[in-house]
Amino acid sequence: MSERLKIVRGQKIDSEGTPMFVRNAWYIAAWSDEVAQVPLGRRILDEPVVLFRDSSGAIAALQDRCCHRGAPLSLGEVVPRGIQCGYHGLVFDSAGQCVLVPGGHKVPPGAQVRTYPVVERDAFVWIWMGKPEQADRSLLIDFPYHNDSRNWPHQHTMMHLRSGYLLVLDNLMDLSHLGYVHKGTVGGDATTHVEARMRTMRTPNGVRFERWMLDSVPPPTYVKAVGFKATWIDGRRLNSSPPTRCSNGTARLMRGQVRCAIGNTIALAKTVSHSGYSTASRLKPRTAAIISGHPQMATARMIPARLASYLTKSP
Amino acid sequence: MTFEQDKAVLEAQQARLLELPDGPLVEIHGDAARIHARRAIDRLIANEQAR
User: Fold this and answer.
1) Hey, are the CB atoms on A159 and B3 less than 8 Å from each other?
2) A285: nearest CA in chain B?
3) At A298, which helix (H) or strand (E)?
4) Distance from CA of A107 to the nearest CA of B (A)
5) Coil vs helix vs strand at A45
6) Integer angstrom CA distances of residue B29 from A165, A200, B23
7) Is the pLDDT of residue A7 over 50?
8) Chain A nearest-CA residue for B4
9) In A, which residues are within 8 Å of B37 by CB distance?
10) What is the pLDDT of residue A206?
11) Do A243 and B37 make contact, defined as CB atoms within 8 angstroms?
12) Do A181 and B13 touch (CB under 8 A)?
């Protein structure tokens, strides 16, 4: 039963039908600019989390449940000492410790709310939903393009989908859909996509695959954005490691020079991260996609040497 | 625009799978990477459960 239900719901479930996730991994909880000194409630891996920026500017993530009567803390407000429950006024600091019971009463022992490790970097707010002692910052992925808006202007958003996260992952890991779903935008000619040369490699924690479309005609979105007319080489590389996050890059080689386009989807090393899976109900899978798009063309000098060298080695 | 196109097909696919869960689903050549990705998730989850 469980195998069939897993396919049908687009997410992995246990024998009771409860969604299962990779927990010991960094997930994107929000964009930096979404977190201010007001509580932000999110459901991540089916757990209610409240994010807020404390008075020092640091971001904290707590379980969205007051340890007094269980009200969501996200209905409260941020105060100088932390987050205040909107029901009876208890205040919790960024470490989840209750620091105030209104009326000058004693804080009872054990008045503590679970917290999650968070890291704010490159405009992302990363959260670790697994065992806190295993949260390893070296596993975070660098994405410096978000810090260079002059050369890499970008727009970002979040999109909710009424589908399970595995269906979203399937979508990103099989780009032969581009010629059909995205015929008029980033896909273009279907035959080019279907006949792309592909290489799939297993990595320690995921999979990496490459697709090369040599001498192909650029798709409509790219032509519109940068006016490419010439035939180009299109190498698309997808990484899924850890597999709960995907990144997607597209680059072009023109006259031997690496050029990198665009796309409201993508350019070289642009990320489309699907994270923060939001499961609103066990029977109705929900996914939130964190999306970053760089409608920008860059020249070779902006491209990290390592990637440029990879891209010039087309098959 | 591009992402709305994905959203439209993914939501319709999910709805139809929930509506008609019992029919067969086949795999084709282009599925290799996505099958690897799903297996990787299965492995990681199994490893976490085992601990």
Assistant:
1) yes
2) B14
3) strand A297-298
4) 35
5) coil
6) 22, 12, 20
7) yes
8) A159
9) 169-170, 173, 206-207, 240, 243
10) 73
11) yes
12) no
- pLDDT > 70? residue A242: no
Q: Nearest CA of chain B to the CA of A83: how many Å?
A: 32
With a pLDDT cut of 90, the percent of chain A lying above it is 29
* 3-class SS of residue A126: strand
pLDDT digits (tens, 9 = 90+) for A272-304: 223 333 333 344 556 656 565 544 433 333 444
How far apart CA A101 and CA A270 sit, in angstroms, is 47
pLDDT value of residue A246: 38
Whether A228 and A217 have beta carbons less than 8 Å apart is answered as no
* In A44-108, alpha helices (H): none
Neighbouring residues of A70: CB distance < 8 A, sequence distance ≥ 6:
none
Whole-complex ipTM:
0.95
Which chain A residue lies closest to B22 (C-alpha atoms)?
A4
Note the pTM of the prediction, 2 decimals: 0.80
The band of A6, judged by pLDDT with boundaries at 50, 70 and 90, is: low
> Is A198 within 8 Å of B32 when comparing Cβ atoms?
yes
β-strand pairing of A197-203 with A206-216? antiparallel
Which among A114, A25, A135, A133 is positioned nearest to A62, based on CA atoms? A114
A23 vs B contacts (CB less than 8 Å): 48
Judge: A171–B17 Cβ closer than 8 Å, yes or no.
no
Mean pLDDT calculated for residue range A171-198? 82
Top-confidence range, A9-13, A101-105, A192-196: A101-105
A315, exposed or middle or buried, with CB in 10 Å at 0-12, 13-18, 19+?
exposed
Q: Could you tell me if B24 lies within 8 Å of chain A, comparing CB atoms?
A: no
Candidates A260, A242, A241; CA nearest to A252 is A260
